[in-house]
Design goal:
Elements (H helix, E strand, L loop, with lengths): L1 E4 L7 E2 H7 L8 E3 L7 H5 L6 H13 L5 H11 L6 E3 L4 E5 L9 H15 L7 E6 L3 H10 L5 E8 L5 H8 L5 E6 L3 H12 L7 E4 L5 H4 L3 H11 L5 E7 L4 H11 L6 E6 L4 H8 L23 H7 L4 H7 E5 L2 H15 L5 H13 L5 E7 L7 H7 L8 H7 L6 E3 L2 H8 L2
Helix pairs in contact: 3-4, 3-10, 4-5, 5-6, 6-7, 10-11, 11-13, 15-16
Amino acid sequence: MQYYSLHHKSPKTSFKKAVIEGLAKDRGIYFPEEIRPLDNAFIQNISNYSNHEIAFKVIQQFVGNNIPEPVLKEIIKKTLTFDFPIEKITDQISSLELFHGPTMAFKDVGAKFMAQCLEYFNEDNDEEVTVLVATSGDTGGAVANGFLGAKGVNVVILYPSGKVSDIQEKQLTTLGQNITALEVDGVFDDCQEMVKTAFLDDEIERKLTSANSINIARWLPQMFYFFFAYKALHQKKKDLVFSVPSGNFGNICAGIMAQKLGLPVKHFVASTNVNDTVPNYLKSGEYKPKPSKATISNAMDVGNPSNFIRIRELFNNDLQELKNSFSSYSFSDDETREKMQDIYDISGYVSDPHGAVGYLGLEKYGLQENEIGIFLETAHPVKFLDVVESTLPVRVTIPDQIKKVIDKEKVALKISTYEDLKSYLMK
């Protein structure tokens, strides 16, 4: 499998090189040259396969011969160590919980998978690689955990000061070892722009890669969730509609990839907070990124989502074709809090603000009689403790994964400009 840059100026490359580079030299993100649909018999008989077997069949064509089959199967086994339960809210709407991993966020799968791929590629290489990553909240903790202690890998995480939750900050600033946190005076988009600029700076001699969803090894494993959900629900003989809380649009893009592989999904809803670049694009036909705004669903505070260019590519850059399978709606913090309360009143289910936005997206879409709506719960409510406990009449139990970091001392270096980042990377 070859990968090409969506800016179409860099040469095609292998899975291995795309993972190590993260971003193409022309600043474009990588995209697979071909997407071969899976055998229909596999889809029809998916209940007969374990999650590990499903994941291997889904990802293998994209890895190709860059990782031997036995090694790839072992990587998958080490990645998928927890469950992805579906919780019924109403007769027609359920939650797909993606937060049962070590950092209690959906990004645990992609971060762990990528870390192991990178470690395998560096096995016989004495040259260290620096993973440079921007986070709006959950990516940083997942990457820090996934790469902790990885041979030949240093991790540098940029996060916006005061715009991640206290627990998210602890998860990315307390681990030490090969993990360094840089607290940026700005918003997530500033962090992301710094990362992209560093990749193109020839004066930086470090070997850099990214663990944001721009990296194919972070992005592609997110396809697994959608196959697992289909496995759990396909016997109901209903059409599936997924609503994905969306910030950088990597998760929903992976879902559309799953659909292109043959997974029977009727429709995708990209549910956003007031950072509404994509909903506005669907209305106007003009893509106009804008500065991000801070909200209670901070993991979605992205004004210029990197992965939306991949989604457009999947639909041949045809707006009408996109609209046939894809909708996007935005919601305010007030609407989010109201929906968190509604979900709790209906079912006793405690949703985090991102999940509530996902639920709102399903309501806005308007499910038909033969459709089942699944919204993705991308993080445990404890990650947004202040919001949840000030909105709902509950006390959230602190899980063991969080207890490990909550009392540790934060260690972070403060930076304001790209030059500050460059200075650190050139030490």
